[in-house]
Amino acid sequence: MGSAKRSLRLVVILALLAIILYPLAWLLGSSFKSQEEVLSNASVWPEHWTPGNYPQGWTHFKSAAVTFGRFFLNSTMVALLVVLGNAASCLLAAYAFARLRFRGRRMFFAIMIGTLLLPGHVLIVPQFILFKQLGLVGGEFPYLPLVVPHFLATEAFFVFLMVQFMRSIPRELDEAAKIDGCSPFGVFRNVILPLSRPALVTTAIFSFIWTWNDFFRQLVYVSETTKNTVPVALRAFIDSSGQVTVGPMFAMSALSLLPVFLFFLAFQRMLVEGINTSGLKG
Q1: Do 89 and 220 share a structural domain?
Q2: Tens digits of per-residue pLDDT, 114-172?
Q3: Domain encompassing residue 82
Q4: Is CB count within 10 Å lower at the N or C end of the chain?
Q5: 213-216: long-range contacts at Cβ-Cβ below 8 A with a sequence spacing of 24 or more?
Q6: Domain count of the chain?
Q7: What is the pTM of this model?
Q8: Would you say residue 145 lies in a domain?
Q9: Same domain for 32 and 13
Q10: Is residue 30 domain-shared with residue 123, that is, in the same domain?
């Protein structure tokens, strides 16, 4: 009976895994199909392999004197800056809310949590007007509106995540550090920061994935072709008449998943190690 339950559980898990991986397998298979076969062949794998989609997609923007690698560099730069900004600013804000005592702390924390109820698209217009007045839109580095807010702890989700994590750290460690002569910043640097590694890694993973996949905000603020990011560049495979270069677009879409997968794979290992080594030792 127990063996039958295990077998049934394994079958269910494999079925769910197949459902989850099917879109990815279809995308990968379609990246090797010709334009005609993509429209006529609904199977996952192509009948006639077309590896030329990859070099054709990579050089699709030769009229702008750039390859698709330029867009990978642009997206990587923006994503890493956002990761750095979220990790630094949200950690400091969370430390203030979780450990420091100041007037209006509960009210400010409630207001911050309340911002989670606002859809991101509702804020696009007022944010654009504000950044335009500050002179951050356009220019030689058009990514400032995409990066600067993340250095100001505007991601309430990550602040809340870190606050909840810090509340699980015993306050006796803070008191012991203060007895040893640590200032509030010393407590943060020597106690809170080392123990907050799992929360930081979680923030880094989600920040990178969300920023890499962001399309609308990057479309709004970045207009120059050579400075586009990967999601916006993929849209450029659709020309003004609505015609789509399907095969090369699928090929570049498949390649665009690789940095996200590698980033998650590397930081997932760090996340597990951080959880295993962050236990309190007597």
Answers
A1: yes
A2: 988 888 888 889 999 999 999 888 888 899 999 999 999 989 999 999 999 898 888 88
A3: 64-236
A4: C
A5: 213/260, 214/146, 216/121, 216/124
A6: 2
A7: 0.86
A8: yes
A9: yes
A10: no
